[in-house]
């Protein structure tokens, strides 16, 4: 039986937040934990859209902070599927600060692995992924590499 597939664009999510006083750390910047929560939320929405059901976050492979964000900044998170296994999905979430002219500056990039689960929280199959351009193919290859590295880390005990 051949599994159905979806395109990357079918499950893309873009979400916007504004940095408010309750989102700041003691240094007056966006608290990294708040940004991580937003990233996890966006990744989860991407996973739900791709898998047509519930998902759990299995791991965060990469979380790279490039610059800070401050009070009143508009934070734009863009999430997309980059790789799928049988029950798992890799999701890339790019975070930007958007100014009032709509110009975006990158502040963070994260890769998360999500697993689709059924009503008993058991892993369930996900649709395949149709790659439509070179960028999506490059992300797929990077996803294969991340999967290999996760397996190697598991074997080595960390």
Describe this structure in words.
- By secondary structure, the chain is an alpha+beta fold.
- The protein has one domain (about 5-155): Thiol Ester Dehydrase, Chain A, CATH 3.10.129.10.
- Helices cover about 30% and strands about 35% of the residues.
- The protein has 3 helices and 7 strands; from the N terminus they run βαβαβββββα.
- It has a 5-stranded antiparallel beta sheet with strand order 2-4-5-6-3. Strands 1-7 form a two-stranded parallel ribbon.
- A hairpin with a 5-residue loop joins β5 and β6 (about 105-115).
- The longest helix has 23 residues, at about 135-155.
- It is globular and about 45 Å long.
- One of its GO terms (molecular function) is fatty acyl-CoA hydrolase activity.
- Belongs to the acyl coenzyme A hydrolase family.
- InterPro entries: Cytosol_ACT, HOTDOG_ACOT, HotDog_dom_sf, Thioestr_dom.
- Its EC number is 3.1.2.20.
- It is an enzyme of class 3 (hydrolase).
